[in-house]
């Protein structure tokens, strides 16, 4: 589909919730007695929006864990990344209190 972008929604959820909801790896277990069913859903964010932790979920006890980024830059980074051993979510983490 033209103009469609795919990204792992669970990473987005982890960023928006400031790490309260953790992402998980997609895994499948083979079962010779039952069919496996996959369900696909689509979510489209405004490319001009900003992806960032929700302000009400950032507190002195739980400081910002992920940097803010424009959705367009997030999508570009996701598809053109050089991970150097990191997941894309790790590249979004704030390290040592820096943003």
List the main descriptive attributes of the protein structure presented here:
single chain, 99 residues, mainly alpha, two-stranded antiparallel ribbon, 3 helices, globular
> Poorly predicted ranges (pLDDT <50, ≥5 residues)?
1-5
Helix and strand content put the structural class at: mainly alpha
| H/I helix tally | 3
The gross shape turns out to be: globular
- Mind telling me the C-alpha Rg? 16 Å
Strand count, sense and closure of the main sheet?
2 strands, antiparallel
- Mean of pLDDT: 79
C-alpha end-to-end distance: 35 Å
Number of strands: 2
Strand order of the largest sheet: 1-2
- Strand residue percentage: under 5%
Helix-residue proportion: 10-25%
Tell me the number of structural domains: 1
Order of helices and strands: HEEHH
Structure, described:
- Helix content is 22%, strand content 4%.
- The chain is mainly alpha-helical and 99 residues long.
- It has one domain (1-24, 41-99).
- The longest helix has 9 residues, at 71-79.
- The radius of gyration is 16 Å and the shape is globular.
- The N and C termini lie far apart (35 Å).
- Mean pLDDT is 79; it is low at 1-5.
SSE diagram, text form:
Blueprint: H1 9-16, E1 50-51, E2 69-70, H2 71-79, H3 88-92
Protein name: Isopenicillin N synthase-like Fe(2+) 2OG dioxygenase domain-containing protein
GO molecular function: L-ascorbic acid binding; metal ion binding
InterPro entries: IPNS-like_FE2OG_OXY, IPNS-like_sf, Plant_2OG-oxidoreductases
